[in-house]
Amino acid sequence: MINKLSTDEVKQQVLRVFQEIIVDPNVSFEVVDIDVHETKSITMGNTINVMWVKVLANNRPVVMGQFGGLAPNGLYGLFKSYVEGYLKGMYEGLLGKRIRFYIDVFDSRPRDYDMKDYLKVLPRKEAIRTGIVKPDSPIDKVMNEYSLEQVLIIGGDVSAPVPGVLHAAENIVRKQLPNNILDLFCGTGAVSKAILLAHTCDVTCVDLFTAKYARQTLAPFKNVNIQEHDVFSYKVRGFYDLIFADPFDAEAMKFACNFVPEILSKCNLFVMSHGYSENKYWNFLVHQELKKNFAYVKTYSSEGVSMSMCSQKVLNNTGTSA
Length: 322
Ligand SMILES: C[S@@+](CC[C@H](N)C(=O)[O-])C[C@H]1O[C@@H](n2cnc3c(N)ncnc32)[C@H](O)[C@@H]1O
Hints:
This protein is of the alpha/beta class. The chain folds into 2 domains: 2-112, GMP Synthetase, Chain A, domain 3, CATH 3.30.300; 161-311, 3-Layer(aba) Sandwich (Rossmann fold). Helices cover 34% and strands 29% of the residues. The chain has helices spanning 7-21, 60-64, 79-95, 124-129, 138-145, 163-176, 190-198, 211-218, 249-258, 260-263, 280-291, and strands spanning 29-40, 47-57, 99-107, 119-123, 150-154, 157-160, 180-184, 202-207, 224-228, 240-245, 267-276, 296-302, 305-311. α9 (249-258) runs parallel beside α11. Bound molecules: S-adenosylmethionine. S-adenosylmethionine binds next to β6 and α7. S-adenosylmethionine binds at residues 69, 119, 152, 159-161, 185-188, 190-191, 207-210, 230-232, 246-248.
């Protein structure tokens, strides 16, 4: 019965579902092979129909959902499983038989590739015109709120601006009134702009790929220093009242493990974002890692994004000294 399924039709469906998740037009993928099998289930003893689908992509991590920031609906790392589950549900409904899909994603590129080739900054109008950002959506509203003109995308994901991150940054500086700030993984400079609109202070921004966009966003402000540097090899000079970090979720753990010890004695307060609040286990692991170094770690949700506020001193709930 499974042979009645046209492989061309399945191919179209696989591509359609991936296309719905992956927004970057430069990420391309094709179905290069489909194999149909009947296999005996060793747990159930019955025969299961299996479709092996081989996908060739020019960026495997993006197509797998492993690369980027806030994957929608908790799908971080699970794009392939999502498409498999979707097709299973659809074809079981259509055929009235049990069927399973296995999708293998292969990368057409050499193994070494550069993240900057997959990061895109779009003007806001372009993001709206192409439907990547919908008018009146939370991102559109936050862009109005802070007069932001750039959208950062990577693969399946609009990475910035993120309302919960910007509002958290603004709320913290309104309470802490810091004299100076280090904004790590500054992206388009949206976090620093939200901070500077609320409170005047010296700001140092670091990003390996987007310094020129941050310069545009922050051009109207004084006392801003933007550095194009790899955060993982960045040496923090001086002392900051606040260090704010907004890495891609996928790099939050690496950052917490490898970089946090570098900044322990270099700030009063350290705040980082590390993923969608619904990715509870991931956020728990990052929290545990931060607890190894800081006396105080408060992990909380800001409009669906998990953030941690950390200090060497024990703080009260508002983030000031207890
Ligand atoms: C989630 S985005 C930050 C968005 C930013 N807060 C904003 O509002 O625009 C993560 C940023 O990390 C940067 N990035 C990724 N790896 C990096 C690295 N090793 N060193 C420095 N920046 C890096 C990317 O260029 C991207 O801008």
